[in-house]
Design goal:
150 residues; alpha/beta; four-stranded mixed beta sheet; 1 helix
Length: 150
C-alpha cells in the first residue's frame, strides 16, 4: 500500500510540474528588464512583425481573433489612438491582457478584466506608444504583441 501511495504522489507531482511548465508565462525580452518596456527606447519604432494597420487613417480598428490555439495575428502595429478589437472566434473562453501574467501591470489599462465568451469581443484604444506584450490570462501560453507608433 505504501508503494502505491508513493507512486500516486510521484505521478501527481510530475503531472503538476508538467502542467505548470506548459502554462507558464515567459515574458518577451524587450531590451530592458524582463517583460518591461522603456518608453522612448531605440527599439520603440522597430519591428520585425508585419504592419497590418494599412494607412491608419483608413482603418478605424484592427481585429485580432482569439482562437483556441492563440491570437491571430499574434503581432500587430497600430497608430496611437487606434482601436484593437479582440474577437473570440474559438469555442473556449479567453481573456486578453497586457503582461506580466497574472498581474497585467506593464500596461494595466489594457486588460479585459473578465473572460470574453465565444462570439463576444473586447476593444481597447491604445494611447501609449511602445511595444506591448500580451497574453491570454486563461491560457497564458497564448502570447502576442502590439506595437503602437505615433
Amino acid at each position: 500500500m505504501g508503494k502505491l501511495l508513493t507512486l500516486v504522489v510521484a505521478v501527481l507531482l510530475i503531472g503538476g510540474g508538467w502542467y505548470y511548465w506548459q502554462n507558464r508565462a515567459v515574458p518577451e525580452n524587450t531590451g530592458g528588464a524582463a517583460g518591461t518596456y522603456e518608453e522612448g527606447s531605440e527599439n520603440a519604432g522597430t519591428s520585425d512583425t508585419p504592419d497590418i494597420s494599412a494607412p491608419a487613417a483608413t482603418l478605424s480598428k484592427v481585429v485580432i481573433n482569439m482562437t483556441d490555439t492563440g491570437f491571430e495575428p499574434s503581432a500587430v502595429t497600430v497608430k496611437k489612438g487606434q482601436t484593437v478589437e479582440f474577437v473570440n472566434t474559438g469555442k473556449e473562453t479567453h481573456w486578453p491582457a497586457s503582461d506580466l501574467h497574472p498581474t497585467h501591470e506593464i500596461y494595466p489599462e489594457f486588460d479585459a478584466d473578465k473572460p470574453v465568451k465565444p462570439g463576444e469581443s473586447y476593444s481597447f484604444v491604445f494611447e501609449k506608444v511602445g511595444k506591448w506584450n500580451m497574453h491570454d490570462h486563461l491560457h497564458a501560453r497564448f502570447r502576442g504583441s502590439i506595437e503602437v507608433t505615433e
